[in-house]
Every structure is written in C-alpha cells, then in structure tokens.
Amino acid sequence: MEKHGVLRYNTAATNIMQNKVDNEIDLEYKHVCKKFGICRTNTGFSDFVADILKIILTSRDDQVKVASDALTEVAKETDFSEVITGVAALFFKTVIGILERSEVENLRSIYSIAMNTLAHKNRPLKVVDITDDKRTITRTLSFLELINTFDAVIPANEENKLEWSDIKNGLEQWQNDEREDILDIMQSFIGHIKSKGIDKLDAEGVRNVRESFAKILM
Predict the structure, then answer these.
(1) Would the pTM of this model clear 0.90, i.e. be above it?
(2) Is pLDDT above 80 for 215?
(3) What tens digit of pLDDT does each residue of 79-125 get?
(4) Dihedral pair phi/psi, residue 149, rounded to 5°
(5) What crossing angle do the helices spanning 45-57 and 134-153 adopt, rounded to 10°?
(6) Contact indicator for 191, 80 with CB cutoff of 8 Å
C-alpha cells in the first residue's frame, strides 16, 4: 500500500474506533440522564480540552505530528515555573522530549488516553487487579485532580466559552487545510490555560497544582 494510502487507512481506522467510543459514552450518559435525572452538559473546561484532543486525533497522521510539535514548542516557551518546580521541571522537559521524538502511532495512543480519561472523569476508577501499576493509578488520579482544579478556576462563563469556541474553530479550520498557523492556535490554547487558569490560582490552588504535576511527571 502506498504511503498516502496507509495514512488514509490509519486515520480512517482511528476515526472509526473513536466514533465507537464516543457513541458508547453518549448512550451511557443518555441512560443515566433519563433514569436518574443526572444530565451532563458539554460546557466545562475539561470538555473543551477533550474536544481539542479529539480534533487532533481525527486528523491525518502528518497533522497529528505537526499539531503535537506545535503544542510542545509552545509548552517549552511558556513559563510554568509557578506550578512545575524542582525535579518535576526536569521531568517535564523529559516528557516534552519524548513527545517530540515519538512516532505518530505513539502520539495517538498518548492523546487518546488523555482524551478518554477526560471523557470518563466522572466515573469511578476501575482497578482490575491489585497488581496494577500503582504509579499509573497515582498519575491518573493526579491528572483528574488537576482537571478538577482547572474546571473550578476556569468556569464556563460566556467569555471563556467564546474563547473555547474560537480555539476549536481555528483548529478545525487548520485540520481542513483552511489555515496554516497551527503554532498560533496552540499559543492561544496554552495561553488560555496559563492566563485564565494558572495565573488565577490562589495559594492553595498553586500548592495543589504543584502536587498534582509532581505526581504526574515523576
């Protein structure tokens, strides 16, 4: 199979798999909403991040790599010293390097895990066996704690929802080859998290985010 054919096949296969996951999640949420009156709205910050990851994952293989490289480039240029300190900062640089060197298949796996963790964030964490990797469980719980913090500090008000919509629309336009400024789009994405989230944290919030990042990265 030619290279372009392989790219189309891999992207199509990923899209089919992700659609199946999305459909299953939607059906379960509808069942819970109808039976128990607990209805989830797609308006929070974590849903916005999940949407960004979904757009990346449903892009072509070459676009996934370009988007990931743009994301890591912006992350390297952003000052996270308030919440990522000490040894965790060294591990952060290591993680960035791993992402930069990763093949598309691995990038898809990493971003898919993050997206599905966000999509299932309100569900109990299932531990299949007591021999499960405790560090993986700790990282997952810390990631969820981090998301809960940002959900609280970046509310779904009109100003934020407008920014979320602009960033998602820009990324979708890039995905459809209508824009080329992926670096600018990722700067808007990371800049939003920094200015509306990290910079708005109180002392306790900073301490909690530091602890979460340390557990995730180390």
Answers:
(1) no
(2) yes
(3) 999 999 999 999 999 999 999 999 999 999 999 999 998 887 766 55
(4) -65, -45
(5) 120
(6) no
- Residue reference for tokens 């010293």: 81
CA distance 57 to 15: 8
Tokens (6 digits) for 82: 């308030």
Q: Within 13 A of 209's CA, how many CA atoms are on the CB side?
A: 25
Which ranges of 37-60 does DSSP label H, i.e. alpha helix? Answer: 45-57
64 has pLDDT over 80: yes
> Which of left, alpha, beta for 101 (phi over 0: left; psi -120 to 50: alpha)?
alpha
pLDDT class of 61 with cuts at 50, 70, 90: very high
Q: Do the beta carbons of residue 138 and residue 76 sit within 8 Å?
A: no
Taking the alpha carbons of 194, 121, 42, 65 in that order, is the dihedral positive or negative? positive
CA–CA separation, 170 and 173 (whole Å): 5
